[in-house]
Amino acid sequence: MQPTGRKLISPGACGLPAALIWALLSLPVMGNEQPDIVGEASDPATGSLLYLEHYYCDEDALACSVFYLRPDQSLIASKQINYQSNLQAPELVFKDYRDDREFKISPPQDPKLVFDAGFDNFVRQQWQPLADGEAIKFPFLVLDRENPIKMRAGQDPGVECENSQLCLQVRLDSWLLGALIDPIELTYDRDEQRLRRFKGLSNLKTDSGDSQKVEIHYNYRDDG
User: Fold this and answer.
1) For residue 152, what are the contacts with CB-CB under 8 A and spacing of at least 6?
2) In a 3-state reduction of DSSP, which class is residue 219?
3) Which of 5, 155, 166, 185 could form a disulfide with 199 if both were Cys (CB 3.0 to 4.6 A apart)?
4) Contact 135, 151 (CB under 8 A)
5) 93: closest CA among 109, 106, 84?
6) Residues near 134 by Cβ (< 8 Å), separated by ≥ 6?
7) How are beta strands 149-155 and 165-172 bridged, if at all?
8) Which residues pair with 104 in a beta bridge?
9) How much is the pLDDT for 105?
10) What is the spatial distance between Cα 190 and Cα 195, in angstroms, rounded to a whole number?
C-alpha cells in the first residue's frame, strides 16, 4: 500500500515479459537524480527513523523503481513495479539485498484483486464512494502470500482529519481477526488524491526477518 508516483505527481529482469523489461530499462537509475517521491519510515513509538523509500517513475508513472535505504543511505532492497496491464494489480519484482532473495510476481487476472502498491490506484478508482463514507471490500494480495486476504477500507473514525484530507482505515474483513490485528491508517490529500501518511505493518521486514510497524510520511518532488 504505497504511492504509485503517478504524475499528478501519487534487477533481475531475465525471464520477465518483454513489456516489463522495456519499462524497467526505461526508468531512471538511482544516483544523483532527485526521486519523484521520498517516504520517511519511522518507529511509531519512538519516532526514530528506520528507513527511506525513494521512488523513481516514468513520465506516465506506469513503471516505477523503489529503493529502500537505511538512514545512512545504504541499500536494503529494491522493487520494480509495472502497471501497464493492471493499475491495481501490477507486475512486480522485489529484491532483498540482505539475503539475496528475489520475488517475481504476475498476479492472476482477477479484475477485483488488489496487489501491493496497486492499492494506491485502487483508492483513487474508489475515491468518490470512500469520500462519501462508504466501506469498500476487496481481496488484497501481499508479496509473500499465495492467496489474497479479504480486506475492507473506509473512513477512519478514530483520527482527527482535516477538511483538506481523506483519512482512511484498512482492516481485515473479519470481525474476529479484525479485532485482533491493528488496522492500517492512511491519509490522503483531497485535492490531489496523494498519499501523505501511512501507519501500520511495513512490507519491509527487519534485518532479523521480523515484521515491523512503521509510520511513513511521503513528500513529492513537485510539492510547493
Assistant:
1) 135, 136, 137, 138, 170, 171, 172, 173
2) strand
3) 185
4) no
5) 106
6) 154
7) antiparallel
8) 93
9) 82
10) 10
Cα torsion 7, 10, 16, 17: sign: negative
Cα angle for residues 105, 122, 170 (degrees, 5° grid): 95
Confidence of residue 28 (pLDDT cuts 50, 70, 90): very low
Burial (CB count <10 Å: 0-12, 13-18, 19+), residue 208: exposed
Distance of alpha carbon 140 from alpha carbon 175, whole angstroms: 17
CB 143 within 8 A of CB 103: yes
Can you tell me which residue has the cell 490522503?
188
Amino acid at 114: V
Backbone dihedral angles phi then psi of residue 199, each to the nearest 5 degrees: -135, 120
Those residues whose C-beta lies under 8 Å from the C-beta of residue 138, and which sit 6 or more positions away, are: 112, 113, 114, 122, 150, 151, 152, 153
Q: Which domains does the chain possess?
A: 18-220 (2.50.20)
pTM of the model: 0.84
Q: Which three cell numbers stand for residue 5?
A: 508516483
Cβ contacts of 168 within 8 Å, gap of 6 or more: 123, 130, 153, 154, 155, 156, 185, 186, 187, 188
